[in-house]
Design goal:
The protein has helices spanning 120-123, 126-136, 140-151, 157-164, 175-186, 190-208, 214-220, 226-237, and strands at 4-9, 12-17, 28-36, 43-45, 52-62, 66-73, 80-83, 89-96, 116-118, 245-247, 252-254, 261-263. It is α+β, with helices and mostly antiparallel strands. Strands 1, 2, 3, 4, 5, 6, 7, 8, 9, 10, 11 and 12 form a twelve-stranded mixed beta sheet that branches.
Length: 265
């Protein structure tokens, strides 16, 4: 079964599907298709505990100066910007889980932290021809999954243990070795990962709870108190949580600082 969520924003349609091949399920959070008869406005992409692979069939600018059609965004600790000058939008985004991308490349994820690079750097020049195949495909997700499965590598027992263990005693490595391996697989250290996960949970609570008491959100997301939550949220988004207004179903959020929109990929 395919589960699809649709939402309209400024003549753009956001379509997110959650069904993936069984081998990919633990490593891919979802696929998003964004289309419409207008350009994506200037947006700030918020931090999330994961990476993204984007196929943009008209191209986008990242951080105002890098134009890419196939973009790989590493684990980010701060927002990054996207913008487009095209008259229409058509793109597909793969949202990997925290350690999902590490199953498709041997590159240390720490080399991609806070970076947006051409995905050809990871998947090679074969990506150029696949990009055009995907653009013309009437049903893109099955084709995309076939492509990803060609690169998929089953995790080792140690890597599996790192992400399934309930305590450090369950991992057959020293603490220092575990920390190094975790950063290799995710891109950041465990403390930063927990910090972004906490922020991501708070963001979801803000989007889904109505009405929302910020004190409740702070404690539910495991912040020390509301002040800690508010300061950390502003540090990561540029706005206070009270100004973070939901639009749709946790797909994007209008924060209303000037003309910049915050969006979660």
């Amino acid at each position: 079964m395919i589960f699809i969520l649709n939402c309209m924003d400024n003549m753009l349609n956001y379509r997110e599907s959650f069904a993936v091949a069984p081998q990919l399920k633990p490593y891919i959070e979802s696929y998003m298709h964004i289309s419409g008869d207008s350009a994506i406005p200037s947006k700030s992409i918020l931090p999330r505990p994961g990476t993204t692979l984007s196929f943009d069939f008209s191209g986008k600018y990242y951080n105002d100066d890098t134009f890419l059609k196939t973009a790989l965004s590493g684990f980010h600790e701060r927002p990054y910007r996207i913008s487009s000058t095209n008259d229409s939008t058509d793109c597909v985004v793969v949202k990997f889980t925290a350690f999902g991308l590490s199953r498709f490349t041997s590159m240390p994820m720490s080399e991609l932290t806070n970076q947006v690079v051409d995905a050809v750097n990871i998947f090679g020049h074969e990506l150029h021809s696949f990009y055009h195949q995907l653009k013309e495909a009437p049903n893109r997700i099955p084709l995309l999954e076939d492509f990803l499965l060609k690169y998929f590598k089953t995790p080792s027992q140690i890597d599996t243990a790192i992400f399934t263990a309930t305590s450090l005693q369950d991992i057959p490595l020293s603490i220092r070795q575990t920390e190094r391996r975790f950063k290799h697989l995710v891109g950041v250290d465990l403390q930063t990962y927990i910090r972004i996960c906490r922020f991501d949970k708070a963001k979801t609570l803000l989007l889904h709870k109505n009405p929302t008491r910020l004190t409740d959100v702070a404690y539910d997301a495991n912040y020390f108190d509301q002040a800690h939550f508010s300061n950390e949220f502003k540090r990561l988004t540029g706005v206070r949580p009270g100004k973070y207004n939901a639009c749709g179903d946790a797909m994007f959020a209008d924060a209303k600082p000037k003309d910049v929109v915050l969006i979660q990929f």
